[in-house]
Each structure stands twice: as C-alpha cells, then as structure tokens.
Amino acid sequence: MQLERIDPFHIVSDDSVESGAVCISPSSFLQTPFWASFKEQHGWTPIYFRLNAGSGPVFLTVLVRRLGRFASIAYIPLGPAIDEVDPLCQGRILADLSALLVSYLPSNTLCIRFDPPWGTTEANCASTSADTEDAAPASAKNRSVRPPLPVGVREAPAHIQPPDTVILDLTKSEETLLAEMKGKWRYNIRLGEKKGVTVRYLEGEQGATEGIDIFYGLYLDTAKRDGIAIHSKNYYADLMRRGTLQNGTDFPFTGKLSVRVYVAEFEGSALASIVTLFCGDEAVYLYGASSNEKRNLMPAYSLQWQAIRDAKDANCNRYDFYGIPPVDDPSHPMYGLYRFKTGFGGSIVHRTGSVDLPLRPFLYAAYRLAEAGRALWYKKLVKLFRRETPRRS
Predict the structure, then answer these.
(1) By C-alpha distance, which of 66, 72, 63 is closest to 363?
(2) 237-276: burial string, b at 16+ Cβ within 10 Å, e else
(3) Distances (CA, A) of 170 to 200, 257, 277, 307, 312
(4) Interval 180-211: pLDDT, tens
(5) Which pLDDT belongs to residue 246?
(6) Residue 218, Cβ neighbours under 10 Å: how many?
(7) What's the order of all strands across the beta sheet hosting 154-155?
(8) Residues 118, 81: contact at Cβ < 8 Å?
(9) CA 374 to CA 79: how far, in whole Å?
(10) What share of residues in the chain are helix, strand, coil (percent, to 5)?
(11) Could you give the CA distance from residue 235 to residue 286 in angstroms, rounded to a whole number?
C-alpha cells in the first residue's frame, strides 16, 4: 500500500498519467473536493491523496478537525473505496492506511475515524409487502443486520453517516419504479397530483435565499415536532451556493452538480420541502421538512417522486434515501422514516458504520466519553423533550 498527497485542483490530461496526473475519481459525493470544500467552511481541513492498494489507484479525502487547542480528529467519509468482505483483511487495510496517514496529520490527532463503504445489500420487496402498519415480528427488534466490524478497530460512540439506507436503481423505467413501490405510495403520489399539490425546485442563489428561507422555516417546525438537532440556516444556504458550480469546472471529478431545494405547495402555501444533491451518477436525498398543516395531501410523496424523475433526467443511476433505522421495528423512534423510505422500493443497504482507530489511547478514551454524552443528548434526550436544538456544523 502506497499513499501520495495530491492537489485535485491541478487537472492535467489523461495522457500525462506517468507524470503524476490525477486521473482517478471519488467513489461518493462525500469524497469529492466539492463536499470537502463545503466542509472546510464549517471547521474541517481537507487533505487529498492517491492511494495505491494493489487493485488500482483510489481517490481518498481525509477531513481533519481541531478540537480546541490540544487535540484533533481525522475523518474519512465512505472510504477507502477498496473492495473487501473479510473483516480481518478490512482491519489490516485500515491499520495500514492509518500508519501511512499519521505523518500527514497533526501530532495531537486522537484517532482516525472511518465510515467504510463495506456492507451488505438485501432485497426490499415493497410492492409485495402489506401497506398496513402492522407490527413486525418480535424477532426483528433483535435481528442483527449490520456486517461485522473490521478486526482491530472500535465502533464509534455515534455514527457520522447513516449506516443503513435505501437505494433506488434509476436505470429502471418510471413505470417499473412505480410498480415496485407499495400500492399506497403510488396512490399518495397520484393523490397529490389530483388535489392540486404542485412541486418546484430552486437552486443557485435563488435556492440559497428563497429556497432555504422556505425550507428552514419548515425544518424548524419539523425539528420541534420530531426532536431532531439541526444546523444553522447559513449551513444549508452555503451548501446551496456551492452547488451552483457546475460540471466539475471548479470542483474536479464532480461531473454534473446540482443542489436543489424542492418545495411542495398547495394554494400558495408551502407544505413540505427537501434538499437533494445530484453529483455525478448519484442523487442523494439529504434533508426533509414538513408543515403541520394539510398533511392529508401527502406532499412528501409528491416531492420524492419529482426528485426521482429529475434524477433520472439528469442521468443519475441511483437515488439514495440516505438513512433508515436498521430493521423493520415499530418500536424504533424513527420507524416512520423506515416505513416511508422503504415504501418506495429499491434495495436496503447495511454498512459497517463509523469506526475508530485510536492514535493516542488515553486522550481518545476521554474524548470518547465526552462524545458518547453528546450523542446521548442529541439522539435521546432531545427527542424525549421534543425541542429544537441547533448544533455545530
């Protein structure tokens, strides 16, 4: 395994590979210079590498964040993009990579945190399952679906990226996608159209101002209703503005790039809104918000269907709903999210989740305790008290 630091903004032609040209592409939007530059405006420092691991070169983005004056953490979202299924070999890959990265990181780095892309996929037979909210079998509550951890790492106190998600195959026709949804989902999509729900999207500066104004107002209602923690309004506006940079001109390897605010309206009133990202061949549903009014018009279904169709038109080949509970368990506090997203069909993906490789064990242990307390606050107590709590970016 070899590691070479690179400047991804130095683009040369593919015939200059022998002179060190950067001709590899990130495996996910989380690994792109676009996303890293966005996170740089909110406290992270990106470092870019070419990783040669035997099976070919891999683009690798590492994000570093200072934790006060005396500590830092390094984070690798959805990487490294190396195919491996054996936990022992996975552990060796992460250990070897960490050893190579140490010299590029601040000396006070407590750990390297990975969100590896490794996982399993299961069929989601939405169209053949019942549309009712009957309880899942009791065994579902304890059924383990997550793949085993790589050997030699520790599971992080909280997952950074959602380890479980639903992904639609957009190479299928619209007719097939509709047929593979639950029947009630098709009905709700048509209901919105019949009742006069309209959907539009905004991007660029209009998205960052008018679009985010609408979205954030609804998001505050959602946060209060569901007890979730959200970023500042500026965080989402900044994401929109960065999404105006098109076709990889400013951010290499991104390909087509569009960050959009979709808004579902009825008689001039905004009922629901989502933020989606089209990046290269993937489309990702990042954030969603809804009003407490006229929920019987099912605007969330209209929003998703419009975004899915637009993603197909943009030649994306997959639509990532980006996060569900791990199993079909009605007792889970986010079960409604599981039911909503899986109802659209697609495949269910279970990844390893966030794992840590400590570099300074004593200080890492103290940081881990603090982070576990923070996770308890945001994921348990905030939901319990059902109040909106802004958080750091």
Answers:
(1) 72
(2) bbbbbbbbbeebeebbbbbebbbbbbbbbbeeebbbbbbb
(3) 21, 17, 15, 11, 6
(4) 999 999 999 999 999 999 999 999 999 999 99
(5) 52
(6) 21
(7) 2-5, 45-52, 57-66, 72-77, 109-115, 355-358, 154-155
(8) no
(9) 25
(10) 35, 25, 40
(11) 13
Q: Is 229 helix (H, G, I), strand (E, B) or coil?
A: strand
Cβ atoms within 10 Å, residue 74: 25
- The 10s digit of each residue's pLDDT in 360-369 is 999 999 999 9
| Integer angstrom CA distances of residue 81 from 107, 118, 119, 168, 241 | 26, 8, 12, 21, 28
User: Which amino acid is residue 40, in one-letter code?
Assistant: E
- Measuring CA to CA, which residue among 345, 301, 91, 291 is closest to residue 190? 301
Strand 198-202 to 282-290 pairing: unpaired
Residue indicated by tokens 């209009």? 206
181, 104, 131, 106: which is closest to 345 by C-alpha?
Answer: 181
268 torsion bin: left (phi>0), alpha (psi -120 to 50), beta (else): left
Cis peptide before 26 (omega within 30 of 0): no
Name which of 355, 362, 376, 335 is nearest 229 in CA terms: 376
Q: In the chain, what is the straight-line distance between the N-terminal and C-terminal CA atoms, in Å?
A: 33
Instruction: Report the phi/psi class of residue 253: left, alpha or beta, with left for phi > 0 and alpha for psi in -120 to 50.
Output: left
Distance, CA of 338 to chain centre: 15
Convert the pLDDT of each residue in 132-181 to its tens digit. 555 455 445 556 678 999 999 999 998 999 999 999 999 999 999 999 99
Q: Which residues pair with 324 in a beta bridge?
A: none
